[in-house]
Structure of hydroxymethylpyrimidine kinase:
Amino acid sequence: MNTARPIVLCLSGHDPSGGAGLQADIEAIMAQGCHAAPTVTALTVQNSVDVLDFRVLDPEWVFAQARAVTSDLTIAAVKLGMLGSLEMVDTVAEILRGLPNIPIVCDPVLRAGGGGALGKDEVGYAMRERLLPLASFATPNLPEARILAELPEGTADQCAEKLLPYCQNLLITGGHGDEQEVHNRLYSRDGSSKTFTCDRLPGSYHGSGCTLASALAGRLALGEDAATAVEAALAYTWRTLRDADHPGKGQHFPRRLPLDFCA
């Protein structure tokens, strides 16, 4: 009997602090009961305070990583994170075209939690045009949604109207204002929408977007429907922030795995 966990292919950057990037992906996916297959797209110089620099990998290295994994393992879902360049957007689009009919979660990472850029806005526009049409979900926060929609002062509803022609489902996360409750809004191309609210937590967090997108990819890999997967991923992410650590001088790190995870 095959007892293997569902496998989620992750295409994202490496954060040496471990708060975000591929380590966040791996931990969040493991917590859903899945296995993460991390393909590195970029190396970053960052910590809990901000991003200092980054370098996008050679496309052939990314192709080679993805080919090695997909030729051997059965991929149940894909999670996209930091890509960093127009060339990498094209590289990932080509990889995805070889993986039809599986859920894809696109987290359009353009800014780190500390505000540092992880790619020019043109990278976001390229993701909108070339990757969102391939994705099951896009999970931008509101500032990222405004960049993608080219609406600097747009509301979540306005951004969704601009972006839904590109993607099937759009989850725009809140938490960037000063409201007492955080509103996370799910929009679907069929015109339906749903708002999930949660209590605002007092901290500032590094890797929350990676955590949510990876948890969502894991839930989809398990075969959950869209609404159930979103609700489970949001609830899990909120708990990781509630229990977050503060190891450095900047933002908190979500606690994605419980202390007794390996007990």
User: Anything to note?
Assistant: The chain has a mean pLDDT of 92. The chain has one domain: 7-243. The longest helix spans residues 226-242.
